[in-house]
Amino acid sequence: MKSKLEKLSPEFQKILQSASSLANSSGCKIFLVGGIVRDLLLGGGVFDLDIAVEGDAIAFASRLAGRLRSSYAKHHAFGTATVYFKNHKIDFATARTEIYSHWGVLPKVRPAELCEDLKRRDFTINAMAIGLNQGDYGKVIDFYAGLSDLNKGLLRVLHQESFLEDPTRILRGVRFKERFSFKFEPCTQELLKQASSKEVLNLVSPHRLRDELICILKEPDPFKCLKSLNRLKSLYFIDKKVFLDKQAAVLFKRINSAAAWYDRTFKNHRKLDKVTIYLAAILIILSQRKIESLLSKFGFKKGERIIVTSIKKGVGLLSQIDKKKEPYRIYEYLKDYSFEAILFFYAYSRGKHLRKNIEYFFKTLACISTDTKGRDLKDMSLAPSALYGRALQSLLKAKIKKGLNGKEQELKEVEKIFKRLYKKHMPCGGNNPRV
Length: 435
Ligand code: ATP
What we know:
This protein has 21 helices and 11 strands. It has 435 residues and is an alpha+beta fold. A 7-stranded mixed beta sheet has the order 3-4-5-2-1-8-9.
């Protein structure tokens, strides 16, 4: 296993070796735990480290940050801390056991040894650790036969009540199953079906469900996970009316190819937030009011709410843009939509003109702006400055309509525009708009 740790970046190795020597000198035991152990064993990439400390994790992290001369943040409420080192993030948590008073609610925790800490985890493949103390540095610790399940491609819960205790494990399980193309071990599969039929996800707080839904939508192929949940009749956690039919499958496919086209073609545009596009695809069958109330119940961010609701409103109006249009009209129609919404329309509609107009928008209009700014108007001694906003807006329109090229052409045009505006808005000011 030592060789696996050696595959980590030099920064991570430095952190681990420093942590290891600190653990030994302070007489506490530390372990790499959770998904990172799984990913290392699978040979995948590692981005963040999770370390369990048998002892006070916050005190340990603060001393390590001192040694590494790096910053750290503590979260007293959770007994955890994060050390930041050269763009790397390492989370420390006190090894703990969890006591559930009710299904679905967060458990009470108390410090414990590693074996207990691993027992509270969701699946055996996520319940392995790697020793970091000198002496067992790099050694895989596998109390629950996670390695054997990993080799067989099986997801197995650690005890019978796992899905009831924390129903988000249903969503996590489906996510890992699809990500790794694993199977649920037969008994786990049965427990999963039973828990799903009890609709236990309704016991979980909407914010935790939202976080899990976002994780699903960030997977390379979220539709696979959603289809799996659909088969388990578990999409009710979003809304009873949410289901995925053939049409939804086609929409997801079209979104994927549209997004791939966008990424390939517009490398200089900003990256799309695909989560909101997929979210809109799931919710599009619901009414506008229902969508708004769900987005607020789950506590999606304002920006995400605006995008999804604008998509729902926009799809009803798409015939307006599915016509031959002048470039400026295309710009006017689309300029206030987010790129996510526009890409959704592109995937959603088969309208020939609409798709052409959107392609033109992304290629030519999406990032258009004037080279002329307010200070240029000031340098030209144009006044009053209250007209600058309108003048620049009209200049942009002229730039699109007439295809103005370069700042010189723009400055000539804006001077004419300013004169016109001046006449119109300052009728008593004479003909000279200069100060
Ligand atoms: P990903 O690669 O998607 O980040 P991960 O396994 O690293 O997967 P995290 O959410 O970062 O997922 O969780 C880290 C570890 O914490 C998990 O591997 C698992 O051991 C444990 N864990 C997380 N959520 C739960 C849960 N709901 N129930 C039990 N254990 C959990």
